[in-house]
Specification:
Blueprint lengths: L5 H22 L1 H27 L8 H46 L2 H9 L3 H13 L1 H47 L5 H40 L4 H11 L5 H16 L4 H28 L3 H45 L1
Length: 346
C-alpha cells in the first residue's frame, strides 16, 4: 500500500526544497546583501571603466588596467578629502567624539530645544513643546542612536569588502552572466532569458544613474548651504554628503553629524544648518527621490514612497536601499513572462 502517490510526493518535495532554499537565504542574508551591494557598486564604476577603454590608446581589449585606474582615482579623491580635514582633525580630534556624543545626549534629553529657542527667537511655549516632545520620545531617540552606531560599524566593514568583490564583477561580469543564463535556462529558452537579462541590466544602470543624480543634488545643496553659513571646507563636506547619499538612512545621518560637528567646532551657524538639513531630508525622501527614481525606473512616485516604507518595515536599512531595485526587477520579470511562456511552448 502506497502512503503517498507520485503527485503528492512531488508537491511535498517541492515544498521542502523551497523551505530549505528560504532557510539558506535567511541564514546567508548578510552575504547575499554584500554581494548585492557589490553588484550595484560595479554598476557605478562600470561607465567610468568603459569610458577609459573607449579613449585609451593601450589595453583597449583589457578591462583590468582601466579598473585599476578608476580605483586609483577614487583613492586619490578619498585621500584628498582626508588631507583637507587632516590639519583641523589632528588638533581637534580629542574633542570631536565627545562633542558628537554630547550633541546626541542634548537631543535625547531635550536640552537642544533651549538652544534652538534662544537662537531662533521662539516663545517659551514653543520651546517647552519641543523639549517635552523630545523627552517623551527619548527611548526612541536613544534606540535610533544605538542603531546608527551599530549600522556604522557594519557599514565600515562592508565598505572594505564591497569594492574588492566588485572587481570580480567588473572584470568578468559578462562571462559570469552568460554562464548563469546557460545553467538556469533550457536550450529553447536561452534567447528569452538573455532578453530578460538585458532588460535587467538596463534597469540597474538606470537605478545607479538615479542614485548618482541624488548624490549630486545632495552635494550641491550641502555645499551651497555651508558656503552661505560660513562653514569650513564646504566643498569637501559636500562631497562627503553626496557620497554618503548612497548609504541608506545611516548615510545622511553620518553626513549631517559630520557637517554639524564641523560647524560647532568652527563656531559657525550649525543650528541653522541642522534645520536646513532636516528640511532637505524631508524634500529628498518625499518629493525629489521618488520622482527621480520613478522617472528612471518607470515607477509612480507614490509607489516608490510606498515601496521604500514597506522595505524599511520589513528589512530595515537594507530593505530601504534594495526595495526600489527589487520592485523594478519584479516589474521587468513580470513584463517578460509572456515571452518566456511563448519560448516554453515553442
Amino acid at each position: 500500500m502506497k502512503l503517498l502517490d507520485r503527485r503528492t510526493l512531488s508537491v511535498l518535495v517541492t515544498i521542502i526544497a523551497v523551505a530549505i532554499g528560504l532557510t539558506i537565504i535567511y541564514l546567508a542574508r548578510t552575504v547575499i546583501v554584500i554581494f548585492a551591494f557589490s553588484i550595484l557598486f560595479a554598476y557605478l564604476i562600470d561607465p567610468h571603466v568603459r569610458f577609459l577603454q573607449r579613449h585609451s590608446l593601450l589595453f583597449k581589449n583589457l578591462r583590468g588596467p582601466h579598473i585599476l585606474q578608476v580605483y586609483l582615482v577614487f583613492l586619490i579623491l578619498l585621500a584628498s578629502i582626508v588631507h583637507a580635514f587632516g590639519p583641523e582633525l589632528h588638533g581637534r580630534s580629542g574633542r570631536l567624539v565627545p562633542q558628537i556624543s554630547g550633541f546626541a545626549d542634548s537631543v535625547a534629553s531635550g536640552e537642544i530645544a533651549d538652544r534652538l529657542g534662544k537662537n531662533l527667537g521662539w516663545a517659551d511655549a514653543q520651546t517647552l513643546k519641543l523639549r517635552t516632545f523630545l523627552q517623551e520620545h527619548r527611548p526612541e531617540i536613544e534606540n535610533a542612536r544605538r542603531e546608527v552606531e551599530r549600522s556604522s560599524s557594519k557599514i565600515v566593514g562592508a565598505i572594505l569588502v564591497i569594492p574588492i568583490l566588485a572587481i570580480f564583477f567588473l572584470s568578468d561580469g559578462e562571462n559570469l552572466a552568460n554562464q548563469t543564463i546557460l545553467v538556469v535556462s533550457p536550450n529553447d529558452d536561452v534567447a528569452a532569458v538573455r532578453s530578460l537579462a538585458a532588460e535587467l541590466n538596463v534597469m540597474l544602470q538606470r537605478y545607479i544613474r538615479a542614485k548618482v543624480t541624488l548624490g549630486m543634488l545632495s552635494f550641491l545643496f550641502s555645499s551651497a548651504a555651508m558656503l552661505l553659513l560660513g562653514f569650513p571646507h564646504p566643498i569637501a563636506l559636500g562631497v562627503i554628503a553626496g557620497i554618503l547619499e548612497f548609504v541608506p538612512i545611516a548615510g545622511w545621518m553620518m553626513a549631517a553629524a559630520a557637517i554639524v560637528s564641523a560647524g560647532a567646532l568652527a563656531h559657525s551657524h550649525w543650528i541653522w544648518m541642522l534645520a536646513l538639513l532636516g528640511a532637505w531630508r524631508v524634500c529628498m525622501d518625499y518629493a525629489i527621490s521618488p520622482r527621480v527614481m520613478g522617472h528612471e525606473l518607470e515607477i509612480h512616485p507614490l509607489l516608490a514612497i510606498f515601496t521604500v516604507m514597506v522595505g524599511g518595515a520589513v528589512g530595515g536599512i537594507v530593505g530601504v536601499y534594495l526595495s526600489i531595485p527589487l520592485v523594478a526587477t519584479l516589474r521587468v520579470v513580470w513584463r517578460s513572462l509572456p515571452s518566456l511562456r511563448n519560448a516554453d511552448v515553442s
